[in-house]
Design a protein that fits this description.
The chain is of the alpha/beta class. The chain folds into two domains: 217 residues, Acetylglutamate kinase-like (Carbamate kinase, 3-Layer(aba) Sandwich); 140 residues, 2-Layer Sandwich (VC0802-like). 38% of the residues lie in helices and 22% in strands. It has 14 helices and 16 strands. Strands 3-4-2-1-7-9-10-8 form an eight-stranded mixed sheet, with helices on both faces. A six-stranded antiparallel sheet has the order 12-13-11-14-16-15. Strands 5-6 form a two-stranded antiparallel sheet. The chain is globular, with a radius of gyration of 24 Å. The mean pLDDT is 95. Bound molecules: adenosine-5'-diphosphate, aspartic acid and magnesium ion. Aspartic acid binds next to loops.
Amino acid sequence: MKIMKFGGTSVGTAERMRAIVPLINTGEKVIVVLSAMSGTTNALIEISSALYAGNIKEAGSKIESLRAKYLDVVNNLYTHEETRQTGREIIDNHFNYISGFINGSFTRTQEKAIVAQGELLSTTLFHLLLQEQNINSALIPALNFMRIDKYGEPDIYYITENLKRELENYPDTNIIITQGFICRNAFGEIDNLKRGGSDYTASLIGAALDASEIQIWTDINGFHNNDPRYVENTFPVRELSFDEAAELAYFGAKVLHPSTVNPARDKNIPVRLKNTMEPDDPGTLISRKQTFQDYKAIAAKDGITAIRIKSDRMLMAYGFLRKVFEIFEVYRTPIDMITTSEVSVALTIDNPENLPDILKELQNLGTVEIEENQSIICIVGDFRPETTGSAPEIFEALNTLPIKMIAYGGSPYNLSLLVDTKNKVQALRLLNKHLFKEQK
Ligand code: ADP
Ligand code: ASP
Ligand code: MG
């Protein structure tokens, strides 16, 4: 069994939705995970924000313009008037639900319920398309099996048990459709796996069912060597190891949700990135296989805060770092990068939610400085100590830019740097020019 996840652009128009039918209808058993049509999640977030702020008029007009867009999709998606009518009823159901919030009170929990309408709509409309084409398929609600615990982590046992129970209803159906991104939380309320979370849904399902492959279908030919949104002349990397892909996704490669690789790696299930616009392109295969190459790929993550703690008490003392780490543990704040000198330690976090409390406690240990608006640049390549000559190019490339921190030696295939966010794009471009001269 394969899992096939199609992202926002891959279901972004009636035409694109029709184009994925032959990709999934191959006679093989597949679980099809769909995102919301591109632009929908953003629009639903804007609608929720307007409702939350009490801007009824603005919310109302945004709801109606999104509804009109969907009515247009329905007209183009189906061939028969009868199916179009069913499509319009589906749209009315969802949009009447959304506009039902206009005159009531509106809380943050309801925001999640509104945002979930995007994936609920795309899957229902797509299921109807298959029905119109007489292709046997079933739609199973992600809200019946996808669940996170009180820490926001997926509840693997619950997911596996409930997903299998859902599937027992359809032993002879090859195409099973479900929603990406959406889930329930520990209180049973509608929640989600954070932006871009449909990738994560696909890998959680793949791991729960021991799938043979998890396919992430998107709008680009696989994982590129650098961020194509900022850098010209990027190219697909054909193979990555789980560890390399996890590192790049965690450090900002938008093409994969940061947690996608973990469930697949745990179960050794290959993840394949494919382009819906060019289905014959091989894309990128992410697997256990580790190959080494001087430089493979670069990614960058913004929104980083650097924290420097300086203390004479660190000098030749043991237990100092434990005290530092404990503070971050108490506030459930992951540390991304860390470097030390004899009397100081510098580290970075990407979630500043509890920063004021963390700082208060750190100040008991020494002098604390923070620096916001930083970006981590993650370079994946060959950094094994026995192979020489890799790293100098990085520093030659960046010799005109201030580097704030360097993490080298923690892993044989990764080197990370911290730069001011305002220098990030230039750093990515310089690295692209100097590290990938001979590759294409
Ligand atoms: P989807 O809607 O299919 O989930 P996303 O927009 O989330 O698609 O991810 C695909 C986009 O990620 C690409 O169009 C590209 O702009 C961006 N991207 C950023 N870094 C990379 C990278 N290293 N390789 C490929 N795409 C990347
Ligand atoms: N629709 C959600 C988002 O835009 C999830 C996804 O596309 O993966 O973030
Ligand atoms: Mg995505």
